[in-house]
Write a structure and sequence with these properties.
The chain is of the alpha/beta class and about 325 residues long. The protein has 16 helices and ten strands. Helix content is about 45%, strand content about 15%. The strands form two sheets. A five-stranded mixed beta sheet has the order 2-1-3-10-4, with helices on both faces. A five-stranded mixed beta sheet has the order 7-6-8-5-9. Helix 2 crosses helix 11 (about 230-250), helix 2 (about 40-50) packs across helix 12 and helix 11 packs across helix 12 (about 250-260).
Length: about 325
Amino acid sequence: MIGKTLRTLAAAAAVLCLALPALAQTPVKFTLDWKFEGPAAPYFIAAAKGYFKQAGLDVTIDSGNGSSGAVNRVATGAYDIGFADINSLIEFNAQNPDKALKAVFMVYDYPPFAIFSLKKANITKPADLAGKTLGAPIFDAPRKTFSAFAKAVNLDPASVTWQTMDPPLREPMLIRGDVNAISGFYFTSLLNLEKAGVKAEDLNIFKYPDFGVKLYGNAIIVSPEMAKKPELVKGFLAAVAKGWKEAIADPKAAIAFVKEKDGLIDAALEEKRLKLCVDMCIATPYVKENGMGGVDPARLAKAIEEASISFGLKTTPKPEQVFDSSFMPDKDARKVF
């Protein structure tokens, strides 16, 4: 009888022990910068395979409506962690010094910023943009940082005229000839143009990094409250790096996790988007050598200066006011290639 009681107690203790990790999960709200598309796959991988849970996190992933929106969501405390353009963060901090945020993990070592034109427009080099009309939404990151591109190619930014439109009209207006060129994310506008029947070989594309622009792209940002939980942030970042490593190794399998979240996506299209994103923004010499997530201090200082000039800031933030590397997982955990 005693033996049976002991076995019952032992079994109950075992069940309790198994239940404890579930009880210890910390809820975390994570906002993307945009819709559930190919580049979101690594986060869904980390959630579906339990990488976040292994770090003690119960992560909810929501779509976004732009980097500025993602920064605001985190700054207000509505979200604990976000994925947003670091240049939008710099602009936000300048306008809201009392709510300033920091990036903690650089995802896009190169920004996906680009200028597109049809070859028939005969814009074969950046200097040919002078006197032309460019189109983009008012909040478009490549448009807002165009002065950094212009400075890199010795072009007077005032020599171009900007026309504003809603995002869905950007590529159609280029095709119709309403504007001479557009700015946009490389892996977004290119695919939109191809979907509309324009072949890549019929385009001239100026990618900002190809012309010496030092700007960084999207990064993981955290709320001040979340920053007070360093071990949880480190665990989140390690899970993200693991998700990216798997997505890079097998893009097709990665998109299946996005498809589970949004059954309406075009899997082939999103696989291509993910590959374009990796090729331009992540598979850089720096990331291949140092792993994902970190920044080069000297380049970061130049990137902040470029962003500050683009936004007309009165003072240029110091790198430590923009990026905090203290939450970074070790180098081996960040190796994605």
